[in-house]
Give the backbone structure.
Amino acid sequence: MNDCIFCKIINKEIPATVINETDDFIVIKDIQPKAPIHLLIITKKHIQSLSHLEAGDQALMGKMVEQAKQLAEKSGLLQRGFKLVVNCGPEGGQLVPHLHFHFLGGEKLDHLA
């Protein structure tokens, strides 16, 4: 999509702090963090939201969850705990219509639903 900010980040048209990148997704620091560690795991394939997943996207979702586990290990959060959040649609709090997971940690996060 031409006007999608995440597509522009993936295509290196907009700068971002990239933590990891694979053929399937990119991990960047959130520019408005809600926790000491707040990363976004973004699919490179433009999928509007969880509601728009297709049967062939199952492997991609599994890779994203595995990436979250690896981020937790590297951040020292695997035993302490972390939060993985996906917002779906406008009423679900999704601000950018491109599928992404929020990886949050570094403090007690019970204030974030």
User: Anything to note?
Assistant: The chain has two helices and five strands.
